[in-house]
């Protein structure tokens, strides 16, 4: 069976020449939930932008990224973007339409779906994230937590098979974080979550990949990796408290 | 300088709406053709930027403060057509959300600030850049053309008010021009400082300004220049210059009360009307020209003081 | 901070005016404005009629009167200037009273409509009357992000003010201009991210 995401030796440089990614390789099986960890500046966001072809800008896709067995190329980019739903770090960047409804409808409309189908998808997506009554609200009036949920709805409306999230719980208060984690738990897609929220990784993910300075420095089961204090500290992270008070083979995912 | 509804009459509003619609239509077509898709959201964000930037208060004297209008700054960064679209957007949103400027008066406001102000100012900017190379040239050009655009816009506004019969031309022109000559200095100063700040933080944003197809920009500008000139011909020239008698009577028959023979500065006694006109008009013109030269020199001095020597000639010459 | 003078919370108020279709409100507003602008000073009937209609809509819209008065206050310096200038040199026709009445009617009309109609509905009407797409997108994006940028500007200004220990005007102008410049740079970078987000969901 094809991997949901297959990265092979992916490298990328910024305009000024600094290497953002160096030979990154890993595969994610369908249905897996993987946490992508690393200190700031490690290249997490840059890596995620490669998963739906936003990077590289110059369209020199060399087969380093494969989604569901298909390499990302200039020709199939539209299909790829329908299969990979990317939730951006700043919800204000993603929620660019005047109302919640319109924003969630954006994806289905761009896919050319009929009005009826679009409406149905919007209702489903809003219900899934708990914003069913908030369709008519202006996007700039939403609270931070509501914005994050609206972004998720906008991506879910495209019905992607792979869900990629960039720091989904940053800036959320504890309740917001709990609610968002509960939402993610219910979504059946393959998930890759870049985050600093180590609790989220322990609770939702079965596997963790640590990125530091553009290279993969560790890739393995969550509990094993996150319990390795030396490894975590060496790469700008730390052993999460939630694991200190748990049996190492305790329940997860 | 946002004219509310009720200050200009029907015919003036209609004329300005037609001129502005033409100008904005041209600008939209140009932007659609030339702007890479990647920069489309930048139009909306630049409009939001102008709005937010206009809320930054610069202390002037006592309790007063001034703020940037930003037409020429945006034109220097994005090109004249994009600037027209951006400013039109700002004016429309300000009109609806804040009742700042009237609905019918949008035609006049767009003409004064977007077409004459931003695009016209851009033409002056490019002219000065062509004559003065380097970063110093660009800074001086921005300061000077921002001042010009403020003053030009205010004169056009005075013309529209006069044509509507709301405010007599001589008094209106004097009041508007005087005030905006001063306001324009602030505008020029802030535009130059902000431009320099942007250049220091992101030189790439400044060097690729005026968008792709730089050689074509003069053609692009020529069309706005024509519109601007047309507007000036309708709103300003008839007041500023005495008309030949034949044309006067025709105008009177059509109901256009230009009162072109009134001197710009109120003549002390009616007996001196005719010779007084030419003298007063001539004197005003000379004073105006002198003022422009003074401001230009000030702009040069400003550029000199802001841009250190090595930067002045080290940067790309492309304006 | 900016919200209180945008009055958008008013457009969330349930009121009879709010429920009227946007196209009707905008159309009626246009008729009133055009009519008022071309009305001759002696068409008293028109002015009285318009004023009455406005009074009714103001009551039905449930907009706080203080808010309307504050908006009207913006007009007064302009009307006063016209009055002053006309005192020095009388205008060709009409007096500042006519100007005051006309501008008041028009301003109230726009304010009532804008505060009883969600902005997205206004945009939809504009789209229906064939306003070019590019302009509508730009207006929509401006409206969406002006609050975001205004808050950013406020935060930057406050941060800078906390580190400004001089009252010298020159230093403050330098600082404030840098805030303006930074604001543009951030706006530009955000525009790029928005483009990426649009592409990520299939924008062509």
Write up what this structure looks like.
The complex is a heterotrimer of chains A (253), B (319) and C (204). With 253 residues, chain A is an alpha/beta fold. Chain A contains eleven helices and ten strands. Chain A has helices at residues 44-50, 77-83, 91-94, 100-110, 115-128, 144-156, 174-186, 198-204, 222-227, 229-234, 241-244; strands at 5-13, 19-28, 33-37, 65-67, 70-71, 84-87, 162-166, 190-194, 207-212, 215-221. The longest helix of chain A is centred in the middle third of the chain and has 14 residues, at 115-128. Chain A is globular. Chain B is mainly alpha-helical and 319 residues long. In chain B, 73% of the residues lie in helices and 1% in strands. A two-stranded antiparallel ribbon of chain B has the order 1-2. Chain B is globular, with a radius of gyration of 20 Å. Helices cover 77% and strands 0% of the residues of chain C. Chain C has two domains: 3-126, no CATH class; 132-200, no CATH class.
CATH class value of chain B: Mainly Alpha
Shape of chain C: extended
Low-pLDDT runs of 5+ residues of chain C are 1-10
Global geometry of chain B: globular
Segments of chain B where pLDDT lies below 50 for 5+ residues?
A: 257-277, 314-319
| Radius of gyration of CA atoms of chain B, rounded to a whole number | 20 Å
Count of DSSP H/I helices of chain C: 10
In short:
The complex is a heterotrimer of chains A (253), B (319) and C (204). Chain B has 319 residues and is mainly α.
Keywords:
heterotrimer; A: 253 residues; alpha/beta; Rossmann fold; six-stranded mixed sheet; four-stranded antiparallel sheet; 36% helix; globular; B: 319 residues; mainly alpha; Arp2/3 complex 21 kDa subunit ARPC3; two-stranded antiparallel ribbon; 13 helices
What does the secondary structure layout of this molecule look like, with pairings?
The complex is a heterotrimer of chains A (253), B (319) and C (204).
Chain A (H helix, E strand, L loop, with lengths): L4 E9 L5 E10 L4 E5 L6 H7 L14 E3 L2 E2 L5 H7 E4 L3 H4 L5 H11 L4 H14 L15 H13 L5 E5 L7 H13 L3 E5 L3 H7 L2 E6 L2 E7 H6 L1 H6 L6 H4 L9
Parallel strand pairs in A: 3-8, 3-9, 6-7, 7-8
Antiparallel strand pairs in A: 1-2, 1-4, 4-5, 9-10
Chain B lengths: L9 H25 L5 H14 L4 E2 L5 E2 L4 H8 L1 H19 L7 H26 L2 H30 L5 H33 L1 H5 L9 H19 L1 H4 L4 H10 L18 H34 L2 H6 L5
Antiparallel strand pairs in B: 1-2
Helix pairs in contact in B: 1-4, 1-5, 1-9, 2-4, 3-4, 3-5, 3-6, 4-5, 5-6, 5-9, 6-7, 6-9, 6-12, 7-12
Chain C lengths: L2 H4 L9 H4 L2 H17 L5 H18 L3 H9 L1 H14 L7 H19 L4 H10 L4 H30 L6 H32 L4
Helix pairs in contact in C: 3-7, 4-7, 6-7, 8-9, 9-10
